[in-house]
Amino acid sequence: MKNTYKTQDTFAITTPLYYVNDLPHIGSAYTTIAADTVARFQRLQGKLVLMITGTDEHGQKIQRTAQSKGRSPQEHCDLVVSGFESLWQQLNIQYDRFSRTTASNHELIVKEFFQRVWDRGDIYLSQQQGWYCVACEEFKEERELLEDKYCPIHTNQKVEWRDEQNYFFRLSKYQENLQAFYQEKPNFIQPESRRNEVLNFVNQGLQDFSISRVNVDWGFQLPVDPSHTIYVWFDALLGYVTALLDPDSEPTLENALSKWWPINLHLIGKDILRFHAVYWPAMLMSADLPISHHVFGHGFLTKDGKKMGKSLGNTLDPFELLKKYGSDAVRYYFLKEIEFGVDGDFSETRFINVLNADLANDLGNLLNRTLKMAQKYFKGQIPDIHGEEIEITHPLKAIGMSLGKQVIQAYSDLAFSQVCEAVLALIRTGNKYIDETAPWSLYKQGQLEALAEVLYSVLESVRLASYLLSPIIPNISNAIYQQLGFSNDFNDKSVINSSEIFVKQANWGALPKNQILGQPQPIFQRIELAETVS
Ligand SMILES: [Zn+2]
């Protein structure tokens, strides 16, 4: 196979291909918000980005769910997929590819990949006995099970005993290769706690896993034995590869891998860590393909401190949340309030308090009152002063000059919460600075030069803040840029960015003097606590 793998300037990121047994829940929204934010940040830096999301549609669980609802499996999948597409649109997710594992080009990719692994001698037929959780689509060790044979993850679902012939993948053969790989690439699994989890699991000794099922029609037939279908996870992981195909290119592995492989980052929830950090690299080793660069497993969400779930009567409907508060509010809360990687909680009261404090009060008010003063004192123009003319010791410039670097590092570390905190620190200093310098007094005293410096430095700080937050709250950033007199559209994916533009815009001092300002309008409406239902 051709070995022209991708260059430094491309960046490919994936969400999981979500299982379509039900409409998307808040956990899927959380992963996808984070992935979209990373993709937007990379695009802003001038990288060529491919963001992949999609759906995993095969397996017994889907077959049974469809049956119970009186639909064909494909009808069921199509219905749920439209729910995902609608949610991503409402959340302002700008994915490039939506990979469905029932697509015909995917079948060809799966079969070609299977053949490579087969030719390598890594697949064999054997007897599988064990406890199977249909909801997990995974065999469980007896010791993992709860009392009365309930699945430890699906605590209201009993596992089923299976005793059947399956084809197995020789995972055990890759034990040492995997261990060496984790040593060589200490950043492959993030964060550190997940890495340790995986190392512990692998160090206990890997067992071969079955990659075929009998009596499951809803899947691809095994090329070497049509009485079996391919195990849903073996099929689903390859959906990342199929997604890389250009729409009009022939579905071969060579075409799929020619431009974007290896994937830079798989963002996942910690529940599917083993598949991505153990099975997937082993499968790629077997097929003699390079391994993805990073797998990041984020934490679980709770609501009001309690585990979420339909059966527990404690759910958070992402559609309702969006209808009530809009996409920027939802994106901001989850990325700012929860340290990415650890478990986090949603409470509506905290949600409202955070948005009011950060977006309505700190950011919104600072822009609004400064714009009004610029209207009044400078005829609606940015004052006639350039960022470079302002002393380096100026309290806002001093913070602003190092902010870009700090925020770039935080985005690269997926530390979204730190991004927000660092930007807010500048904004809060801006509010304090206005109070202390009292521009209205400067105006009365006729100190126009000092006044120009005050207003310029505050407006520039708001600009910088909104630029750096644009991957998280693109609509609010657009509103701020428009009020500052720009015509940028952070939602326009076709805009060609470059690293030069990025370096300039991510630095303090880029606001052009004398630019005509827009009309001051609130960028985020305060939410009244009384509006909430819960
Ligand atoms: Zn389960």
Question: Gist?
Answer:
The protein is α/β, with parallel strands linked by helices and 534 residues long.
In this structure, how is the largest beta sheet organized? Answer: 6 strands, parallel
- SS class: alpha/beta
Strand content: 5-15%
The CATH class of the domain at 348-531 is: Mainly Alpha
Number of H- or I-type helical stretches: 19
Distance between the termini: 57 Å
Q: What ligands does this structure carry?
A: zinc ion
Indicate the radius of gyration in whole angstroms: 26 Å
Helix content: 40-55%
Q: What do we call the CATH topology of the domain at 348-531?
A: Isoleucyl-tRNA Synthetase, Domain 1
**CATH architecture tag of the domain at 348-531:** Orthogonal Bundle
Give the tags.
alpha/beta, 4-stranded antiparallel sheet, 19 helices, 16 strands, binds zinc ion
Overview of this structure, please?
The protein is 46% helix and 15% strand. It is an alpha/beta fold and 534 residues long. It has a domain at 348-531: Isoleucyl-tRNA Synthetase, Domain 1, CATH 1.10.730. The strands form four sheets. It has a six-stranded parallel sheet with strand order 3-2-1-12-13-7, sandwiched between helices. Strand 12, helix 10 and strand 13 (294-298) form a beta-alpha-beta unit. The longest helix is centred in the last third of the chain and has 31 residues, at 348-378. Bound molecules: zinc ion. Residues 133, 135-136, 151, 153-154 line the site of zinc ion (ZN).
Describe the SSE topology.
Blueprint: E1 10-19, H1 26-44, E2 48-56, H2 60-68, H3 73-90, E3 97-100, H4 104-119, E4 123-133, E5 138-140, E6 160-169, H5 175-184, E7 189-190, H6 192-203, E8 209-210, E9 212-213, E10 221-222, E11 225-230, H7 232-237, H8 239-242, H9 253-257, E12 265-269, H10 273-286, E13 294-298, E14 301-303, E15 306-307, H11 318-325, H12 327-337, E16 344-346, H13 348-378, H14 395-412, H15 416-437, H16 439-444, H17 448-469, H18 474-483, H19 499-505
Parallel strand pairs: 1-2, 1-12, 2-3, 7-13, 12-13, 14-16
Antiparallel strand pairs: 4-5, 4-6, 6-8, 9-11, 10-11, 14-15
Helix pairs in contact: 2-3, 13-15, 13-17, 14-15, 14-17, 15-17, 17-18
